């Protein structure tokens, strides 16, 4: 076995669903947890915009209703990324990844800014079509090896996962929110509400790190 | 461990000072003294500081904590010979930290700097392709295994030069004034750093110092292998001078061009790694 | 070996479908049409999962489907806010035959009975479809709290059944029945909500 | 954060990191235990020291919006 993520030092079992904590997954998990706590505890900033053609500038204030919705979405996004970091099941991982996609849209959906909403919509289209390679990658892992458990796959006793299947999985994750599709997402970060918006970029980053680990473990 | 951290911080800031000096000399300026960055950090630490009125205060302060914390962690991972996936994860997290720095203040300049740092995400993809290339040879991503592999087979720089080149581009994208440093364009004032003044800015210098040391050290460890301490210092200084020359002699790309170029590099690297995997690894 | 060949052929067919879907998606420029087409693109992924042909596949299709639908709903809502369409009044179809004849009622009763016979998730889906059809054709002016309560209680029954499986496996038959009926009512109630979601008077 | 609290936090983390260095050198606590302490402690110490010494007293600023 290629010990890509280091040897796991703790297994958390729920029936046949096993979460495992190796040095890499634990680091990523802690980071997701840390930023989720940030989201829960911090208040959004008031974004300053310059009114062109005059000396005036204005600060955008987020209304309480919008704040609650976005805080909820950002927390859900944090929880989904935490789950994706430690799950030991390929299909669960893809589900968490697409959940992150949904919550990412949710984080900016309440923003009353046409640019942001347009970007979120385009991103949503990309991420929704990315579920095709994502789910089919996971399904083909099961089809070629007979198991979805990363722990079993890492042992090397199962048949090797073909490169095409791995690239399907990675392609799906890239579509869920990495460069070059990230370009659709960058505009979303214009939305005010720093702690929530940060979850968008953090979650996709963590998920990408994890899929690299998964693809190299399989 | 505390002496190592302090030494790494000091050395990293000196390297950044050297970078400024080399760039200045290439531009026929005298340039600041080599310890200028260190002086900056010290100066900023003793300035009166507060959180701007519009900022999301917890985020504004907390992101400095995260920034210093992750680079201390990265340094410890390098010292312990741990997994390079963790180090590169932290490298990618630097983008989030920059993003957080920029967005948390509410300032428009900070915001644009933060958004640019998100666009620069494209620089991270070559990284993973080069990681894959390394793993094909070493069958492990732990730094100590990679160093042990190189002790037997010779430096990876000669075995997988394209991977070293891709990683060099990655280092370049975090250098001030480099071709990919879209985050620090002059039209953005100080980009994501604009609103963090006083000891927050000093914290940023701490991040930068540790970051420079960690990234250069990792590069040397991964592609050249284990050396005596003096050897490490000499190689890192040489590497820094090469980086400075590259920065001084190349134009800063627009965000779009930067992303395009990095995507092209990624594509080339993917083909390369595919070829290696298809032909089978010698040895 | 035979199975592998069947699988490959199925895979090929589904991938071709996916490629056609993506091609169409790349040609389409209108946002709303793209949203509709994306549903078409989504289906091949479920097809690939279903190709596994085991009961694992059945367990995987369900969450895949749910995630896809959730994303689709989120995008639909986003489209509405993006285009500023929330405040537009929505009118029912009002086709005379459907409004007056007893046919919709009969069809929906048949569907509900068939759903109850099937029971479980599929049964819930079919029975729910019947109720959706009824509500869509006749309109529904009551408040939703009753349906919501029914859905919640049946969901709780479903969860309880799983606890029975875990802690008292000897009563498995009771648990199977409870889970089947619970999920039947839950899916039915939820789908009925879909049928009334865009009623008149908004 | 009040200056007094910041001073206490800075002193606590500083002393903790300093004192536990000796057991680490002696091999009594593992690398990663002490490492985790440093990863959390170093930034907290840095910021708390900054707050204790240089936190602004007066009214906060507006952000920079142009020259």
How would you sum up this structure, described in words?
The complex is a heterotetramer of chains A (218), B (283), C (202) and D (67). Chain B has twelve helices and no strands. With 283 residues, chain B is mostly helical. In chain B, helix 2 (36-45) packs antiparallel against helix 10 (199-223) and helix 3 runs antiparallel to helix 4. In chain C, helix 2 (31-50) packs antiparallel against helix 3 (55-83), helix 5 (103-118) packs antiparallel against helix 6 and helix 7 (145-167) packs antiparallel against helix 8 (172-197). Chain C has helices at residues 2-27, 31-50, 55-83, 96-100, 103-118, 120-138, 145-167, 172-197. Chain C has two domains: 1-88, Helix Hairpins; 89-202. The longest helix of chain C has 29 residues, at 55-83. Chain C contains eight helices and no strands. Chain D has one domain (3-54). The mean pLDDT of chain D is 78. Classes of the chains: A mainly alpha (218), B mainly alpha (283), C mainly alpha (202), D mainly alpha (67). At the A-D interface, loops of A face loops of D.
What can be said about this structure in brief?
The complex is a heterotetramer of chains A (218), B (283), C (202) and D (67). Chain A has one domain (10-217). In chain A, 65% of the residues lie in helices and 8% in strands.
């Amino acid at each position: 076995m290629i010990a890509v993520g280091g040897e796991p030092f703790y297994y958390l079992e729920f029936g046949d669903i096993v979460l495992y904590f190796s040095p890499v997954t634990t680091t990523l998990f802690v980071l997701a947890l840390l930023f989720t706590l940030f989201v829960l505890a911090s208040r959004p900033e008031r974004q300053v915009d310059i009114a062109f053609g005059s000396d005036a500038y204005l600060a955008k204030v987020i209304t309480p209703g919008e704040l609650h919705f976005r805080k909820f979405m950002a927390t859900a996004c944090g929880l989904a990324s935490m789950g994706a970091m430690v799950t030991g099941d390929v299909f669960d991982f893809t589900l968490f990844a697409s959940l992150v996609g949904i919550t990412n849209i949710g984080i900016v959906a309440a923003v009353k800014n046409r640019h942001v909403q347009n970007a979120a919509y385009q991103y949503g289209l990309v991420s929704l079509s990315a579920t095709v390679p994502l789910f089919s990658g996971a399904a083909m892992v099961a089809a070629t090896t007979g198991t979805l458990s990363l722990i079993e796959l890492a042992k090397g006793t199962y048949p090797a996962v073909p490169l095409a299947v791995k690239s399907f999985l990675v392609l799906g994750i890239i579509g869920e929110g990495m460069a070059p599709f990230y370009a659709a997402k960058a505009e979303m970060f214009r939305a005010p509400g720093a702690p929530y918006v940060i979850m968008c970029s953090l979650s996709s980053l963590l998920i990408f790190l994890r899929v690299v680990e998964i693809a190299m473990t399989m | 461990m505390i002496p190592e951290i302090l030494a790494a911080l000091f050395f990293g800031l000196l390297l950044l000072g050297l970078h400024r000096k080399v760039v200045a000399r290439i531009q026929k300026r005298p340039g600041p003294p080599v310890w200028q960055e260190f002086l900056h950090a010290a100066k900023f630490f003793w300035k009166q500081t507060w959180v701007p009125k519009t900022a999301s205060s917890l985020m504004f302060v907390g992101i400095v904590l995260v920034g210093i914390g992750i680079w201390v962690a990265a340094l410890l991972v390098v010292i312990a010979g741990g997994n390079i996936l963790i180090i590169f994860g932290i490298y990618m997290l630097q983008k989030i930290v920059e993003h957080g720095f920029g967005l948390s203040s509410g300032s428009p300049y900070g915001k644009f700097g933060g958004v640019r740092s998100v666009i620069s995400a494209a620089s991270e993809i070559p990284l993973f392709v080069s990681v894959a290339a390394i793993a094909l040879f070493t069958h492990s991503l732990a730094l100590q295994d990679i160093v042990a592999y190189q002790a037997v087979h010779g430096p990876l720089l000669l075995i997988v030069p394209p991977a070293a080149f891709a990683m060099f581009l990655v280092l370049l994208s975090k250098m001030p004034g480099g071709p990919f440093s879209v985050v620090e364009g002059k039209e953005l004032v100080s980009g994501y750093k604009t609103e963090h003044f006083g000891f927050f800015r000093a914290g940023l210098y701490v991040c930068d110092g540790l970051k420079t040391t960690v990234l250069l050290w990792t590069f040397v460890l991964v592609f050249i292998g284990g050396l005596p301490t003096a050897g490490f210092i000499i190689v890192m200084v040489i590497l820094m001078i090469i980086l400075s020359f590259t920065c001084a002699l190349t134009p800063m790309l627009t965000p779009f061009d930067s992303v395009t170029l990095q995507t092209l590099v990624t594509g080339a690297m993917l083909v390369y790694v595919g070829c290696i995997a298809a032909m089978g690894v010698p040895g | 070996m035979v199975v592998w060949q069947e699988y490959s052929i199925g895979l090929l067919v589904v991938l071709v479908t996916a490629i056609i879907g993506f091609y169409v998606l790349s040609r389409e420029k209108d946002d709303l049409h793209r949203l509709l087409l994306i549903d078409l693109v989504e289906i091949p992924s479920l097809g690939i999962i279903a190709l596994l042909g085991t009961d694992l596949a059945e367990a995987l299709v369900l969450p895949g489907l749910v995630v896809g639908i959730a994303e689709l709903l989120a995008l639909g809502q986003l489209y509405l806010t993006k285009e500023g369409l929330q405040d537009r009044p929505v009118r029912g179809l009002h086709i005379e035959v459907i409004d007056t004849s007893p046919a919709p009622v009969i069809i929906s009763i048949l569907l509900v009975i068939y759903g109850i016979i099937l029971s479980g998730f599929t049964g819930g889906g079919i029975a729910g479809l019947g109720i959706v059809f009824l509500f869509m054709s006749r309109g529904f002016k009551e408040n939703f709290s009753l349906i919501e309560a029914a859905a919640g209680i049946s969901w709780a029954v479903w969860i309880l059944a799983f606890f029975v499986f875990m802690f008292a496996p000897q009563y498995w038959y009771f648990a199977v029945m409870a889970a089947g009926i619970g999920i039947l009512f839950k899916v039915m109630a939820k789908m009925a909500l879909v049928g009334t979601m865009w009623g008149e008077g908004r | 954060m009040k200056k007094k609290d910041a001073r206490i936090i800075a002193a606590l983390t500083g002393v903790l990191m300093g004192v536990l260095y000796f057991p680490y050198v002696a091999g009594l606590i593992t690398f990663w235990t002490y490492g985790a302490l440093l990863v959390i402690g170093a930034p907290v110490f840095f910021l708390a020291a900054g707050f204790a010494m240089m936190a602004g007293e007066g009214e906060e600023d507006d952000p920079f919006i142009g020259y």
